């Protein structure tokens, strides 16, 4: 599964995990994606959508 929102395109972020002794190792932050059934062009499709898009109402969920 691609870790990218199908609506807004939000994807993974990267940076460093910094230990107390200031050793930096790479890490990634993943968006909170949910697989939902949504109406797209009048048809029901399964989408990977971030929770920000779900809460804001950008997605019309299928009933």
Short summary:
The chain is mainly β and 63 residues long.
CATH topology: Ribosomal Protein L24e, Chain: T
Largest sheet: 2 strands, antiparallel
Give the terminus-to-terminus CA distance.
24 Å
Number of domains: 1
CATH architecture: Roll
Tally of separate helices? 1
- Percentage of helical residues? under 10%
Q: Low-confidence runs (pLDDT<50, min 5 residues)? A: none
Question: Class in CATH?
Answer: Mainly Beta
Write out the CATH superfamily name: Ribosomal protein L28/L24
Would you kindly provide a written description of the structure presented here, covering whatever features stand out?
- By secondary structure, the protein is mainly beta.
- The protein has a single domain (1-63), classed as Ribosomal Protein L24e, Chain: T (Roll).
- Helices cover 10% and strands 44% of the residues.
- It contains one helix and four strands, in the order ββββα.
- The protein has one helix spanning 51-56, and strands at residues 13-18, 24-29, 33-40, 43-50.
- The strands form two sheets. The chain has a two-stranded antiparallel ribbon with strand order 1-2.
- The chain is elongated, with a radius of gyration of 16 Å.
- The two termini are 24 Å apart.
- The mean pLDDT is 95.
């Amino acid at each position: 599964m691609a870790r990218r929102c199908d609506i807004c395109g939000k994807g993974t972020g990267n940076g460093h995990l910094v230990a107390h002794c200031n050793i930096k190792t790479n890490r990634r932050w993943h968006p909170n994606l949910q697989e939902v059934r949504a109406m797209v062009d009048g048809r029901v499709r399964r989408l990977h959508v971030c929770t920000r898009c779900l809460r804001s109402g950008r997605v019309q969920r299928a009933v």
